[in-house]
Amino acid sequence: MITIKDKTFVPFIAAESIQARIQELADQINQEYAGKQPLIVVVLNGAFLFAADLAKHLTIPCEITFIRVASYNATESSGTVKQILGLTEAIEGRDLIVVEDIVDTGLTIAQVCDQLQEKHPASLSIATLLFKPAALKKQLDLHYVGFEIENRFVLGYGLDYDGLGRNTPDILVLE
Ligand code: XMP
Ligand code: MG
Protein backbone atom coordinates (compact mmCIF):
# COMPACT_ATOMS: atom_id res chain seq x y z
CA MET A 1 0.00 0.00 0.00
CA ILE A 2 1.21 3.51 -0.83
CA THR A 3 -0.28 6.82 0.20
CA ILE A 4 0.50 9.81 -1.99
CA LYS A 5 -0.88 13.09 -0.81
CA ASP A 6 -4.56 12.36 -0.07
CA LYS A 7 -4.84 9.12 -2.05
CA THR A 8 -4.24 5.51 -1.06
CA PHE A 9 -3.17 2.94 -3.63
CA VAL A 10 -3.38 -0.82 -3.10
CA PRO A 11 -1.63 -3.70 -4.93
CA PHE A 12 -3.01 -4.46 -8.39
CA ILE A 13 -0.48 -6.16 -10.72
CA ALA A 14 2.61 -7.72 -9.15
CA ALA A 15 6.08 -7.15 -10.57
CA GLU A 16 6.47 -10.86 -11.43
CA SER A 17 3.28 -10.82 -13.53
CA ILE A 18 4.38 -7.65 -15.30
CA GLN A 19 7.76 -9.14 -16.15
CA ALA A 20 6.28 -12.44 -17.34
CA ARG A 21 3.82 -10.65 -19.60
CA ILE A 22 6.55 -8.39 -21.02
CA GLN A 23 8.58 -11.47 -21.94
CA GLU A 24 5.55 -12.80 -23.86
CA LEU A 25 5.08 -9.49 -25.68
CA ALA A 26 8.78 -9.40 -26.58
CA ASP A 27 8.61 -12.98 -27.92
CA GLN A 28 5.69 -11.95 -30.12
CA ILE A 29 7.51 -8.84 -31.39
CA ASN A 30 10.68 -10.86 -32.06
CA GLN A 31 8.67 -13.28 -34.20
CA GLU A 32 6.59 -10.70 -36.03
CA TYR A 33 9.53 -8.38 -36.79
CA ALA A 34 12.01 -11.09 -37.73
CA GLY A 35 14.17 -9.80 -40.57
CA LYS A 36 13.16 -6.21 -39.89
CA GLN A 37 14.86 -3.42 -37.98
CA PRO A 38 12.05 -1.49 -36.27
CA LEU A 39 12.26 1.95 -34.72
CA ILE A 40 10.84 1.79 -31.20
CA VAL A 41 9.21 5.11 -30.31
CA VAL A 42 8.82 5.39 -26.55
CA VAL A 43 6.28 7.87 -25.23
CA LEU A 44 7.74 9.52 -22.12
CA ASN A 45 7.40 9.75 -19.21
CA GLY A 46 5.04 6.94 -18.37
CA ALA A 47 6.44 4.25 -20.64
CA PHE A 48 10.05 4.47 -19.48
CA LEU A 49 10.15 1.33 -17.34
CA PHE A 50 7.96 -0.74 -19.66
CA ALA A 51 10.11 0.22 -22.66
CA ALA A 52 13.33 -0.56 -20.81
CA ASP A 53 12.16 -4.00 -19.70
CA LEU A 54 10.65 -4.79 -23.11
CA ALA A 55 13.83 -3.74 -24.92
CA LYS A 56 15.96 -6.11 -22.83
CA HIS A 57 14.03 -9.04 -24.29
CA LEU A 58 14.11 -7.91 -27.92
CA THR A 59 16.54 -10.00 -29.94
CA ILE A 60 15.86 -8.30 -33.28
CA PRO A 61 18.08 -5.35 -34.20
CA CYS A 62 16.17 -2.20 -33.35
CA GLU A 63 16.60 1.51 -32.80
CA ILE A 64 15.03 3.14 -29.76
CA THR A 65 13.97 6.76 -29.57
CA PHE A 66 11.99 8.81 -27.08
CA ILE A 67 9.25 11.36 -27.55
CA ARG A 68 7.17 13.53 -25.30
CA VAL A 69 3.67 14.60 -26.00
CA ALA A 70 2.79 18.19 -25.22
CA SER A 71 -0.85 19.20 -24.90
CA TYR A 72 -2.21 22.55 -25.86
CA ASN A 73 -5.73 23.81 -26.32
CA ALA A 74 -6.87 23.77 -29.89
CA THR A 75 -8.80 26.64 -31.34
CA GLU A 76 -11.30 24.13 -32.74
CA SER A 77 -13.88 22.25 -30.76
CA SER A 78 -11.83 19.05 -30.72
CA GLY A 79 -10.34 19.99 -27.35
CA THR A 80 -6.73 19.18 -26.73
CA VAL A 81 -4.23 18.66 -29.48
CA LYS A 82 -1.09 16.71 -28.73
CA GLN A 83 2.15 17.75 -30.30
CA ILE A 84 5.11 15.39 -30.57
CA LEU A 85 8.37 16.71 -29.12
CA GLY A 86 11.83 15.22 -29.51
CA LEU A 87 11.49 13.17 -32.66
CA THR A 88 14.58 13.70 -34.78
CA GLU A 89 14.77 10.38 -36.64
CA ALA A 90 13.61 10.03 -40.23
CA ILE A 91 10.35 8.05 -40.18
CA GLU A 92 9.67 7.48 -43.84
CA GLY A 93 9.84 3.82 -44.77
CA ARG A 94 10.56 2.66 -41.21
CA ASP A 95 8.68 0.03 -39.23
CA LEU A 96 7.54 1.85 -36.10
CA ILE A 97 6.50 0.38 -32.77
CA VAL A 98 5.01 3.04 -30.52
CA VAL A 99 5.40 2.12 -26.85
CA GLU A 100 2.90 3.58 -24.34
CA ASP A 101 2.23 3.00 -20.67
CA ILE A 102 -1.56 3.08 -20.87
CA VAL A 103 -4.34 3.59 -23.36
CA ASP A 104 -7.28 5.13 -21.54
CA THR A 105 -9.56 7.15 -23.84
CA GLY A 106 -7.09 6.44 -26.63
CA LEU A 107 -7.07 10.08 -27.72
CA THR A 108 -3.37 10.61 -26.98
CA ILE A 109 -2.07 7.58 -28.83
CA ALA A 110 -4.46 8.19 -31.73
CA GLN A 111 -3.13 11.70 -32.23
CA VAL A 112 0.47 10.55 -31.90
CA CYS A 113 -0.11 7.82 -34.49
CA ASP A 114 -1.88 10.22 -36.87
CA GLN A 115 1.11 12.55 -36.75
CA LEU A 116 3.57 9.70 -37.27
CA GLN A 117 1.51 8.36 -40.20
CA GLU A 118 1.85 11.73 -41.93
CA LYS A 119 5.59 10.99 -42.16
CA HIS A 120 4.88 7.82 -44.18
CA PRO A 121 6.36 4.98 -42.14
CA ALA A 122 6.35 1.55 -43.79
CA SER A 123 4.26 0.29 -40.86
CA LEU A 124 3.15 1.37 -37.41
CA SER A 125 2.08 -0.75 -34.49
CA ILE A 126 1.25 0.10 -30.89
CA ALA A 127 2.53 -1.64 -27.78
CA THR A 128 0.83 -0.59 -24.57
CA LEU A 129 1.36 -2.12 -21.17
CA LEU A 130 -2.16 -1.31 -19.99
CA PHE A 131 -5.46 -0.81 -21.75
CA LYS A 132 -8.80 0.32 -20.29
CA PRO A 133 -11.36 -0.88 -22.87
CA ALA A 134 -14.27 0.73 -21.01
CA ALA A 135 -12.72 4.20 -21.32
CA LEU A 136 -11.88 4.00 -25.03
CA LYS A 137 -13.33 6.80 -27.14
CA LYS A 138 -11.45 6.18 -30.35
CA GLN A 139 -11.38 3.23 -32.73
CA LEU A 140 -7.83 1.89 -32.37
CA ASP A 141 -5.87 -1.13 -33.46
CA LEU A 142 -3.72 -2.11 -30.46
CA HIS A 143 -1.23 -4.73 -31.56
CA TYR A 144 0.50 -5.53 -28.27
CA VAL A 145 -1.41 -5.17 -25.01
CA GLY A 146 0.08 -6.20 -21.68
CA PHE A 147 -3.05 -6.16 -19.56
CA GLU A 148 -6.65 -5.12 -20.14
CA ILE A 149 -7.80 -3.49 -16.93
CA GLU A 150 -10.99 -2.03 -15.53
CA ASN A 151 -11.61 1.70 -15.65
CA ARG A 152 -9.83 2.66 -12.43
CA PHE A 153 -6.87 4.95 -11.81
CA VAL A 154 -3.59 3.07 -11.60
CA LEU A 155 -0.12 4.04 -10.48
CA GLY A 156 3.42 2.71 -10.42
CA TYR A 157 5.82 1.07 -12.85
CA GLY A 158 6.10 4.36 -14.72
CA LEU A 159 2.62 5.71 -14.07
CA ASP A 160 2.26 8.65 -11.74
CA TYR A 161 -0.18 10.46 -9.53
CA ASP A 162 0.66 14.15 -9.68
CA GLY A 163 4.24 13.34 -10.66
CA LEU A 164 4.81 10.83 -7.88
CA GLY A 165 4.81 7.05 -7.69
CA ARG A 166 6.46 6.13 -11.00
CA ASN A 167 9.26 4.26 -9.24
CA THR A 168 7.57 1.06 -8.10
CA PRO A 169 8.12 -2.41 -9.61
CA ASP A 170 4.41 -3.19 -9.11
CA ILE A 171 1.28 -1.50 -10.40
CA LEU A 172 -1.17 -0.26 -7.79
CA VAL A 173 -4.76 0.92 -8.03
CA LEU A 174 -6.61 3.74 -6.32
CA GLU A 175 -8.49 2.29 -3.36
P1 XMP B 1 -5.68 8.78 -23.04
O1 XMP B 1 -7.00 9.02 -22.34
O2 XMP B 1 -5.37 9.86 -24.02
O3 XMP B 1 -4.67 8.89 -21.87
O4 XMP B 1 -5.62 7.39 -23.64
C1 XMP B 1 -3.40 8.53 -21.98
C2 XMP B 1 -2.55 9.16 -20.91
O5 XMP B 1 -3.28 9.53 -19.72
C3 XMP B 1 -2.58 9.11 -18.57
N1 XMP B 1 -3.40 8.13 -17.83
C4 XMP B 1 -3.12 7.61 -16.63
N2 XMP B 1 -2.07 7.80 -15.81
N3 XMP B 1 -2.99 6.29 -14.27
C5 XMP B 1 -2.02 7.15 -14.63
O6 XMP B 1 -1.08 7.29 -13.88
C6 XMP B 1 -4.08 6.03 -15.03
O7 XMP B 1 -4.94 5.24 -14.65
C7 XMP B 1 -4.14 6.74 -16.28
N4 XMP B 1 -5.05 6.74 -17.29
C8 XMP B 1 -4.56 7.60 -18.22
C9 XMP B 1 -1.29 8.51 -19.06
O8 XMP B 1 -0.29 9.51 -19.04
C10 XMP B 1 -1.56 8.14 -20.48
O9 XMP B 1 -0.41 8.17 -21.32
MG1 MG C 1 1.67 8.35 -20.82
TrEMBL record:
Superkingdom classification of source: Bacteria
Pathway: Purine metabolism; IMP biosynthesis via salvage pathway; IMP from hypoxanthine: step 1/1
Any one GO MF annotation of this record: nucleotide binding
Positions of the Phosphoribosyltransferase domain: 17-161
CDD domains cross-referenced by the UniProt entry: PRTases_typeI (cd06223)
One Gene Ontology cellular component: cytosol
Membrane-traversing stretches: none
Root EC class: transferase
EC number(s) on file: 2.4.2.8
Pfam short name (any one): Pribosyltran
Keyword list, A-Z: Cytoplasm, Glycosyltransferase, Magnesium, Metal-binding, Nucleotide-binding, Purine salvage, Transferase
Catalysed reaction equations from the record: GMP + diphosphate = guanine + 5-phospho-alpha-D-ribose 1-diphosphate; IMP + diphosphate = hypoxanthine + 5-phospho-alpha-D-ribose 1-diphosphate
Cofactor(s) needed by this chain: Mg(2+)
Location of this chain's protein in the cell: Cytoplasm
GO biological-process terms attached to the record: GMP salvage; guanine salvage; hypoxanthine metabolic process; IMP salvage; purine ribonucleoside salvage
NCBIfam families noted in UniProt: HGPRTase
UniProt record similarity statement: Belongs to the purine/pyrimidine phosphoribosyltransferase family.
Protein name: Hypoxanthine phosphoribosyltransferase
